[in-house]
Amino acid sequence: MVGGVLGMLLAMLHLGTGVTFSAGVAAWCAGLALVLILAAHPIGARLGALLAGLFLAVPGLVGDGPAARAVLMCMGTVLLAVGEALVVGPPLPGLRARLAYLYTYANTHPITRRERCFDATAFLRLLVASTVLAAGLALAKAAPAYGPGLLARWLGGELIMLMVAEMLTAGPPFGAALVGINVPPIMRSPYRSASVSEFWAKRWNLRMSEFFFRKCCFAPLARHGVAVALVVPFAASGALHAAIAYVALGQWGISLLCGAFFLVQPLLMGAERCLKVRSWRPVARRAWTLAALTMVSPLFVEPALRCVDQDWGGLDQVPLQTLAGLAFLIAASYLNALASQTALPAAATGLAVSPSAP
């Protein structure tokens, strides 16, 4: 965490030395390899986590625009999470064992074999999500960034976020089916959440929520009360996203709004308890969740849209951008499934789960 704080502070200086986005990606790949190698020893794992945190200074050196800096900051937080996971986890001899530990969410989610196939259901979900994503892109691009048009812009931005999450729900299973394995989920259709609590705990960004929220924050803080255990992780997440927005945009006002989005989530969860939302009918519960998140989504959506306003072009580019995003997700899901296979041979050593067919 010391490395992460120092890295973010350096990034906020906006040195802008002209480092390119591709050079930042290359530095991230080198940092990931170094973190995995150093984790062979407990002291090395701590050093790797420190270096992973310091990587967050790199986006502040990039001069390719807000979108490039935002993407590199997000990649940096992933690298930091990998470093932290290897520090708090057990000593793992061998690179394959460390990869297996990461891919199985600290040995909590099995990676099992299955028959290779073309998952038509997952592919259809990808196509539907891509279509709605294109509509959201068109709406966000066409709407003005001021006046009454902001409502349409924010609605388009929310559609983009939810459909990207839906594509991340269907993409990994699709790629895994082509390889012949089952992989842990990244998302679980967040738009179908029946409560704000379910949205964050069981459907959105599961890798981060299960490791960071549950293991590192909620579980240790729960003895001090549920309220503290909820507020602290969201406050930390709000600070992190505010820092990402500031590094990308260089504006404190809009960046603090981004952080405020996460601070209001515990309030929404508290409102759910007061309203006894869990006793409502499923349709009403889902309507409540979408309405509550839509009400506060501009706090997050507007900073995100400003990060890409300079780079996403006009309406005529929507079809090409959507197809490119779909192709990239499918390719990334397939490569992720290939890499996930490292967890299967490690099962013989007890460092991963059984490779038996489901």
Describe this structure in words.
This protein has 358 residues and is an all-alpha fold. It folds into two domains: 1-91, no CATH class; 111-345, no CATH class. It is 69% helix and 1% strand. Strands 1-2 form a two-stranded antiparallel ribbon. It is globular, with a radius of gyration of 20 Å. The two termini are 39 Å apart.
Summarize the structure.
With 358 residues, this protein is an all-alpha fold. Helix content is 69%, strand content 1%. The model is unreliable at 346-358 (pLDDT under 50).
Descriptive labels:
69% helix; 15 helices; 358 residues; mainly alpha; globular; two-stranded antiparallel sheet
Topology (elements, then pairings):
Layout: H1 2-11, H2 21-38, H3 42-54, H4 66-88, H5 95-103, E1 112-113, H6 120-142, H7 149-179, E2 181-182, H8 196-203, H9 206-221, H10 226-249, H11 252-263, H12 265-275, H13 282-296, H14 298-308, H15 318-340
Antiparallel strand pairs: 1-2
What would the average pLDDT be, to the nearest integer? 89
Q: How many strands appear in the DSSP assignment?
A: 2
Largest beta sheet: strand ordering? 1-2
Discrete helix count = 15
Percent strand equals under 5%
Q: Give the SSE string.
A: HHHHHEHHEHHHHHHHH
